[in-house]
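$ fold --in a.seq
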Amino acid sequence: MVTFTVEDQDGNRQEIEAPDDMGFNLMEILKASEYPVLATCGGMALCGTCHIEVLEGKDGLGDATDPELDQLENLPEYYPTSRLSCQIRISDILEGAVIRLRGEDVV
């Protein structure tokens, strides 16, 4: 299991535990945890509605792919630590990370 923290739009933080051996991505875990992530494209990095900002732990995540960067750069609000949650696999690299939901900014 991997534990990370999610900050919602109101600044409330909640720790989430997620299995790291089932191939889930962060978007799927956020949706399963009942966060309001639209994920309109179903995780194909085509819409940007699963936009998050990584507040802590970005170094371990690696760089965004070109298709992910293309979507992020077209968002109304884009931060140096922005990522698409559909492109981040649940693994030990997320241990202790803190992410902020941003997808609602584009809806």
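$ fold --in b.seq
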Amino acid sequence: MAEREELDWQLFGKATRELAEQIAASGYEPDIVLAIARGGLFPAGALGYALDVKNLHVVNVEFYTGVEERLPLPVMLPPVPNVVDLSGARVLITDDVADTGATLKLVRDFCADHVADARCAVIYEKTISEVKAEYVWKRTDKWINFPWSSTPPVVTRDGQVLDA
């Protein structure tokens, strides 16, 4: 098995604080933090608190189906954000990782015609990413173990409780 990047909860706290400091130092003051669910929910919440932004929105995008397994293209799932809610706003799009960049590109392009400014913040960015985020905590080409997804679920989608 290839070497992996490990992010635990304590390091996540440090990473998101340092991301928030980058954003603040740049002078960017987002009106909205737009989380790409699911992985982007965690940095979005942390950045929302650190940047004193209470207006958080979520966009659901499916791309990864397993470790290094993905759909041909990312798909935005309902409910899709209402563009009226984004109109004229400065939007900070957040995700845990810019891997291929396809998910960030989908969301950034969705926002492009409706917002005053859209910038991307990620914990990790890989060199192959077609989108270069404005705010990046760390660059790596390793597979990343995030604290929220490195252990299996406790239940399956049909509600069955799994053995520990």
